[in-house]
Amino acid sequence: MKYILSIDQGTTSTRAILFNHEGKVIGIAQKELECLFPRSGWVEQDALSIWISVVDAISELTIKCNVTFDDIDSIGITNQRETSIIWDKATGMPIYNAIVWQSRQSADICDALVDKKDFIHQKTGLLINPYFSASKIRWILDKVPGAQQRAENGELMFGTVDSWLIYKLTNRKVHATDVSNASRTLLFNINTMKWDEELCKLFNIPMNMLPKVNPSSFDYGKASYYQGDVHIMGVAGDQQAALFGQTCFEQGECKNTYGTGCFMLMNIGKNITLSKNGLLTTVAWQIGDQVTYALEGSVFIGGAVVQWLRDGLQMIETSKDSEKVARSCESSHGVYVVPAFTGLGTPYWDDDARGAVFGLTRNTTKARFVRACLDSIAYQCKDVFTVMEQETGLDIKCLRVDGGATANSLLMQFQSDILFSKIMLPQCLETTALGVAYLAGLASGFYKNINEIKAVHSYQAEYNPSMSEEEVNKYYEGWKKAVNATLQFK
Q: What's the predicted TM-score (pTM) here?
């Protein structure tokens, strides 16, 4: 029996996961990663530590599962997106720490280009923001003495985390990325599906330091760091990988990941839709010559509001307690919590907004407050969901979900109610790693086609809407009033 090895390289940890043909997890090994905070708003990581964590996780996994590389069909890599690394071509050593997607240290570079936002949006589907890779590259080239000249001389290489791992796994033979990761750099034209010369000139980034861009399901080369003849066959950024892992293969199908924040992605098919309401347009994946695009919306504070209840307010002892406490009341009784702790994401994109609470009375209890916090996650996701329906003209009948908060059945039922949509929870919750396992398996022949993947994919729970339209509209109108008041109070 053969397995697929997925490397899931995230911001706080690296995981190596072994999947069988049915998409079931055979084993997991996880290694924690440290984030560095040199200054306020800066977030960095040691790129070598990222690589070491991958090697350690794979070693532990193969030992625990008693497998060798002879038992592995292929490797898939999924990664924290936008995080940027520059390394020396001759030595293979980083010239500076990896700048993490969360970091704001390149904000001034983006501010200086704000007048180019429409030009950038038309080419990339993205906003001009330090979140993406281009300004991070520019910052490193400015920061490290002589780096710009070395880059122009072809002495330096850039990569997002997937490129860095491909490079190391292939013993420095392959410098490549996939279309989904390339589309998050602000340097990749999603219309032409190529690195864009005008964008590179705008950020003054030499094109010779950029990796080759390949399809997501593709033979990237032999993982010659290890013995055996195992090839890297699937690569995708984490959220696009989760969309694929949720089998959202058809236009209009979408998924929502409930993590610290929430990421909602919709498959929009072969044609590009540019948002007018703060959604990002991104490349979902490419298989063969066929490119699939996606719309993406971000909620900044999802599960983090439960962590706040637990750690900040100490209203609950564990995250799981939030459901038990909230179930002791039938609703929030008009209380609305707007958790804009770090601003508001899609569709508001207001970094200056701050959290607020509305509707408090003498009858407000801890249970009603906790319920309002859980409801806020669902309301924010509805904001994104509504914009996606409006901009695509599609009526979304089903939302596939993953992430930690999906364990809260009260939240999932309320989400179904206010979206008027079925919520489906997959059997395997490791959807990000599963997505690149599917992509790798398609390239290697482990799976014959997408229909075979659909046949093995299964679900463990389903939630269906049960509220009346009148009731939902009443609740949601209250939420919109609370958000509008929050945006005005600064």
A: 0.89
Burial class (CB in 10 A: 0-12, 13-18, 19+), 179: buried
Q: Which H or E element spans position 283? A: strand 280-287
Is residue 490 very low, low, confident or very high in pLDDT (cuts 50, 70, 90)?
low
Instruction: With H, G, I as helix, E, B as strand and everything else as coil, classify residue 396.
Output: coil
C-beta of residue 10 within 8 angstroms of C-beta of residue 80:
yes
- Looking at residue 341, what is its pLDDT? 84
Tokens of 451: 């229909």
- 42 phi and psi, to 5 degrees? -90, 135
CA distance 487 to 441: 47
Q: How far apart are the first and last CA of the chain?
A: 60
Pairing of strands 280-287, 290-299: antiparallel
| DSSP classification of residue 270 | T
Six-digit token pair at 248?
Answer: 């959202």
Q: pLDDT digits over 52-91, tens only?
A: 999 999 999 999 999 999 999 999 999 999 999 999 999 9
Helices (H), 154-196: 161-169, 179-182
Mean pLDDT for 147-174 is 96
The whole-angstrom separation of Cα 20 and Cα 415 is: 32
Q: What are residue 484's phi and psi, to 5 degrees?
A: -60, -40
Q: Classify residue 413 as exposed, middle or buried by CB count within 10 Å of its CB (0-12, 13-18, 19+).
A: middle
Structure tokens at 442: 């398609």
Q: Measured between alpha carbons, how far is residue 208 from residues 72, 194, 445 in Å? A: 34, 13, 33
CA distances from 164 to 101, 147, 259 (A): 15, 18, 25
Going edge to edge, which strands form the sheet with 44-45? 44-45, 98-99, 84-88, 156-160
Task: Read off the amino acid at residue 420.
Answer: F
Q: How far apart are CA 231 and CA 226, in angstroms?
A: 10
Residue 149, CA distances (Å) to 143, 153, 208, 209 in order: 12, 6, 12, 12
Which residues, listed in sequence order, are joined to residue 297 by a DSSP beta bridge?
Answer: 264
Average pLDDT over residues 216-222: 97
**pLDDT attached to residue 342:** 76
What is the H or E stretch that residue 336 is in?
A: strand 336-338
Q: Is 228 left (phi over 0), alpha (psi -120 to 50) or beta?
A: left
In this predicted structure, what is the pLDDT of residue 307? 87
Question: Do 463 and 378 form a contact (C-beta atoms < 8 A)?
Answer: no
Distance CA 234, CA 75 (A): 7
Report the pLDDT averaged over residues 435-463.
Answer: 94
Rounded to whole angstroms, the Cα distance separating 229 from 144 reads: 38
Structure tokens that stand for 135 in this block: 């300004």
Closest C-alpha to 370, from 313, 322, 415: 322
Domains in the chain and their CATH numbers? Answer: 3-214 (3.30.420.40), 247-490 (3.30.420.40)
